[in-house]
Amino acid sequence: MKGKNSKRLDSIKAAHQSERTRSSTRMEDYLEIISELVELKGYATTLDISRYMNVSAPSVTKMLQRLDEGGYLEYEKYHGINLTKKGADVAEGIRQKHGILLEFFEILGIGYDTANQDTEGIEHHLNPKTIKQLRKFITFLKANPKIIENFKNL
User: Fold this and answer.
1) Can you give the chain as a three-state secondary structure string?
2) What angle do CA 89, 91, 95 make, to 5 degrees?
3) What distance separates the 2 farthest-apart alpha carbons in the chain?
4) How many CB atoms sit inside 10 A of residue 86's CB?
5) Are 76 and 61 in contact (CB under 8 A)?
């Protein structure tokens, strides 16, 4: 029994390995918000990001500087915020994960609000291999609508 519990603890430890995981999740959230704002409005401001992230403007400024240093965006204080190709690629990857997860949850019959909330909680933590397999599974289910129908009738 001790070996089984130890494996679970090791798994939890690996999943929460340091501040880096939380930090990269936060960075991805910022890139996702910036991408959505630019697509919606044509630009993103510190104030907009602050409102959507529910953080203070100085916190946004600090993160924008980190993202700029990391090559994810071009940021000049009091000027526009533009994603670099690297930043746009990360944002697009998150958008794709989000869409795949929402589609999967829809098939499961989970309401949009709950599915969207759950997706926001896990989209950053899934391995690309997991997302690939989910995409394949969704494609399989859609090609076999009787399976979905049978599931919904359970």
Assistant:
1) CHHHHHHHHHHHHHHCCHHHHHHHHHHHHHHHHHHHHHHHHCCCCHHHHHHHHCCCHHHHHHHHHHHHHCCCEEECCCCCEEECHHHHHHHHHHHHHHHHHHHHHHHCCCCHHHHHHHHHHHCCCCCHHHHHHHHHHHHHHHHCHHHHHHHHCC
2) 115
3) 59
4) 14
5) no
Q: Are 46 and 61 in contact (CB under 8 A)?
A: yes
| Tokens standing for residue 41 | 């409005």
> How many Cβ atoms from other residues are within 10 Å of residue 30's Cβ?
26
Do 73 and 83 meet the contact criterion of CB atoms below 8 Å apart?
Answer: yes
Output the pTM of the full model: 0.78
Instruction: Show the tokens assigned to 52.
Output: 């959507």
CA–CA dist 16, 148 (Å, integer) = 35
Reading the chain (154 residues) residue by residue, the pLDDT tens digits are 456 667 777 766 666 664 445 668 899 999 999 999 999 988 899 999 999 999 999 999 999 999 999 999 988 777 779 899 999 999 999 999 999 999 999 999 999 999 999 998 898 888 889 999 999 999 999 999 999 999 999 8
**Paired residues of 75 in beta bridges:** 81
